[in-house]
Amino acid sequence: MHELTKGANVGLAELSEDAGSVIVGLSWSSASGAGDADVSVLLLDADGKVRSDADFYFYNHPAAEDGSVQLLGKAPTENGSEDRIGLDLTALPDEVRTVVIAASQYGGARFGDLDDLRMIVSDRSGEAILGFSITDATVETAFIFGELYRRNEEWKFRAVGQGYETGLAGLATDFGIDVVEDEEDGPGEGAGEEERAGARAADEPLASAAGTTAPEPTLVAVPVAAPEPAPASAPAVIPAQTGSATAPDTATSDSAPATATRRRGPRTAKKKVTLPKTAKKSLAENDSWKPARLFPVPSYKSDREREVRATSVLLSVMAEVPEFGRRLTAAFGAPAGRMQTFTEVSLPHGDTPRRPDGVIRVERAGKLWTALVETKTNGNPLKSEQVQDYMDIAARRGYEAVITLSNDVALEGTPLVDVKIDGRRKHKVALRHLSWAEVAHQAQMLIRHEGVGNAAHAWLLQELLHYLQHENSGCHGFQNMGPAWVPVRNGIDTETLCQGDPRALEVVESWERLVRQVCLRLGGELGQKVLPVQRARRGSDPMSRRAELADRLCEDGRLTAEVRMDGAQNILTVTADLRTGRIRTSMEVAAPEGGYPLSVVKRLVRALAEAPADLHVETLVEGGNGPRGTLERLRPEPGDLLPKDGAAITGFRLSLFKGMGASRGSTESGFIRSVDDAIDRFHGSVVAHLGPFERRAPAPARA
């Protein structure tokens, strides 16, 4: 991989022969687990400005209609998280001369609070071709990591690494986005006229525009009223009005940016279809009648029948619902184009032809992108020799990827299958993996939160989701803690498990897979990114981190994970204590500033009026812990939470406890089911009611 320093540039063709489509990854880490940022992309013309506001891609405008730009979302890494962007450079219009890759923070956070700021560009095969690290971040709230630009019809990359103190609004303004500040925020100081000039030499580093800190304005794209209908691709940006945001289940747009504030729905003239969360009233005579399904799930006689049907159902929906097919293949380097899918194909391989489960072909501008698909269901593992054969076939026939699909969840540094890559071959084949949990997550995000093109597509995705979630489909995701689970539990119970035991490492890996699957499921229900928090030392690799966690498991008998919901300030912690057989879900909330101690604890108890009576509440004070008790006891006497010595209250820790399943699977009495239930109960009965308490309390009046 080619490493760049700040201001350096390099041609993509020098690094890879397959750089027409690239994946850009922006990554960072935080020792506290609280750091996060949002990526954005700007398409600039020869003057260094956007052609219209539709050239600005961020969290509420994540994709271009032609597939040239797609924000692929966050993914956990060994040290933090990575935000990925798919860029099809061959699909960009000729008038686009520069693609700016940036990121911004919110809520008063600064990039100096993050560690390991890094940008990596990978070619279509997934091989990293260049990297750039930023080491001088301080008070900036927005950062330009780098830019891709045309030079003599060749795409080059420049490492920029320059920041803004004016956040996303200052960055957008600098490149010609018309920003009008929200009336509630009041006038803020923007970047100066000189900073917005944007002029720079042909191969000089991108100019920086660090202005004074200002409240981030709201950007809302709404078609302008005119005698003739205005084109959807050229919206006007006006201030958002309070209370007018569209609910998550209503229409969204894919043609123009909607709003630069978090958790606010888009509002445009172009509609997208989502399905209501509540089902319509049934016309059946009694509850025993089952509705007809497009994809029925009979009792299968063999795993082979289950795999064939699951592959056919999935690939057919991918081809018919463009948003869904694009969502699953964009991260693998596939272009946006006409997609066709096939099953049970026969391909020559020596004396015996091979029959992969499926083939995906995407056509764009007369060029084909092709991938082989190998499917496993019902917890069956992928076979290395089978995947190796498909990799060899793909390399000989010029296919771009081999996609494996199973119940398992892939982890960094732990390949699901071992394959050998022949470095002498000129054509590179990418080996990619999808879990059934990821497929279900993407389907749920589209039909419940983001929307698709028409009602028929939404119904197709609904039928697919019902099929995947049926108990007979075999597509339920990760459902087994593995053969090491019972011996490790017994070893902890009898205190015979020693550090360095490889079985403890297997359990830690299974635990990480389970946590990632929980994040996918919870994120699909909430309509937002949910990621595990990684607290690792800088420079540590995934295997050494897991080995350390395995030794800790042998020592204290506990598995612990932290989960952060996109935009939330607090971290949800889940701990499975194998010695006591209990699961603890907890969250620490900061005490509102400026309130009297008794008023603060009363306000907390009122906010938890709908929480279960067995919720444990613990007062946090400077230098230690304070009083604690169950909500049942504290409701009539909230003053019991006040520290006896008058110490200042810094926050509260809220906890629920649940018995842990004994078996390694996901049955009613299984460990996986118990973790799912514990997190669902804590989020639904506790986290969902904390909003009123977390808002800042008014300062007490002086006597």
Describe the protein's architecture and organization.
With 703 residues, this protein is an alpha+beta fold. Helices cover 23% and strands 25% of the residues. Strands 20-21-22-23-26-24-25 form a 7-stranded antiparallel β-sheet. Strands 1-10-9-3-7-6 form a 6-stranded mixed β-sheet, with no helix packed on it. A 6-stranded antiparallel β-sheet has the order 2-12-11-8-4-5. Helix 3 packs antiparallel against helix 7, helix 6 (436-450) packs parallel to helix 9 and helix 9 (502-526) packs across helix 10. It is globular. It starts with a strand and ends in a 9-residue tail after the last helix. Residues 181-269 and 696-703 have low confidence and may be disordered.
Name some characteristics of this structure.
7-stranded antiparallel β-sheet; 703 residues; disordered C terminus; 6-stranded mixed β-sheet; 14 helices; alpha+beta
Radius of gyration: 26 Å
Shape, per Cα inertia axes = globular
How much of the polypeptide forms β-strand, as a percent range? 15-25%
Distance between the termini: 66 Å
- What's the β-strand tally? 26
Structural class: alpha+beta
Mean pLDDT: 80
Strand order of the largest sheet: 20-21-22-23-26-24-25
Pick out the low-confidence regions.
181-269, 696-703
Helices, by number, come to: 14
Q: Name the helicity range.
A: 10-25%
Largest β-sheet summary: 7 strands, antiparallel
Multimer state: single chain
TL;DR of this structure?
The protein is built from 14 helices and 26 strands. With 703 residues, it is of the alpha+beta class. The strands form 5 sheets. The chain has a 7-stranded antiparallel sheet. Strands 1-10-9-3-7-6 form a 6-stranded mixed sheet, with no helix packed on it. Strands 2-12-11-8-4-5 form a 6-stranded antiparallel sheet.
